[in-house]
Structures are given as C-alpha cells and as structure tokens.
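Let us practice reading a record.
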Amino acid sequence: MERREALRLLAAGTALQLAPNKMMAMLLEARRLIGTGAPPRTLSSQQYSTVQAMAELILPRTETPGATDVGASEFIDLMLTEWYDDRDRARFLAGLADVDVRTTALFGRNFVSSSPGQQAEILIALGERMAENAGHVRDPWADNASHSDANFYSMLRGLTLTAYYTSEGGATQELHFEIIPDSHVGCAPLPSAKGPENQ
C-alpha cells in the first residue's frame, strides 16, 4: 500500500474497516513505537501540548479512556515524523499554528492557555468549516490554500480517531474488539437434526 493511500485512509477514519494486512502491520508497529516513551520528534513542546489538548477535546475521557490516555498525541507526532512528506507535514504544522493565531485573536491567549469553553469554541468553528467544505474538499492533502484550516482539522480528527481506535483501550473498551475470544468450546456437540437421514 502506498504511504499516501494509507494517509487518506487515516484521514477518512476508515483505517480499521478497510485496513489490509500491510496497513494493520504499520499501525501495530506505530503502537509499539509509541510505547517507548520517546520525546516528540516533529512537534515542539508547545505544538505537542496543543495537539494533546485538541485530541482530548475530540475524544475526552468518560467511562472509556480519552485520547490522552491512549497516546493520541504521541501517535500523531509519529505519523508526522515517519509518514508525512515535507509538504503534508508543513500543511499540518501551519494549520496548528493557525489555531493559536485564531485563539489569540479571539481570547488574547494561545489555545492551551485558553479555558475549556474557549477551546471548544475554536474546535466547533473548525468543525463547522470542515462540514461546510465537505462537498468541495474530498482530499485533506489536496493543494487548496483557501481550505487549509478545514484540511488541517480533517487531518487532525482522522489521526486522533485512528490513534484511539487502534489502541488497546479504544479497541477493547469502546469497540469491544476481541483479538482472542474469552472462551472456546473445542468439541461442542452438534445440535440434533430432525431430518429423515437422522431418524
């Protein structure tokens, strides 16, 4: 599978449903690398904090783990580092910087320093922009400067959802996915058939 096609699947949030073996192997490898606790390689500490706050707003902790609990920001940094090309990485980082510009213009402080209500207001505006452009922007990696904020938010949401649902917590507690069933009956008797051959 081509790297760009893998990124398109991630952005569409369809990675789990459509993931061929190579894609699933890549996601499992990404999960393994996240568990090492390495510092971010692409995101600065400020950018990392912004991504973490945005991801947690997208998937907050409830009775199931939130985005922070499953390492969504670590996953996003890994994808930016290992899978994005320079142009896509620059587009993502520009969109992330624009979040702080918007937040500062509206509230006089950056996204991380804003209140949860102010942060939610920014995400709602980005989500509305993404929805408005849904019919016009089919590929979040397409060259279209006028829709860059919608593209960025689409990329962020896709990566956050993929990070969540490929994690153990997201897959088992939210999707109730079982890699190994909790029980197996090896020699279960077949139900008796009432057909004439069994009489």
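A brief commentary: The chain has one domain: 3-36+43-175.
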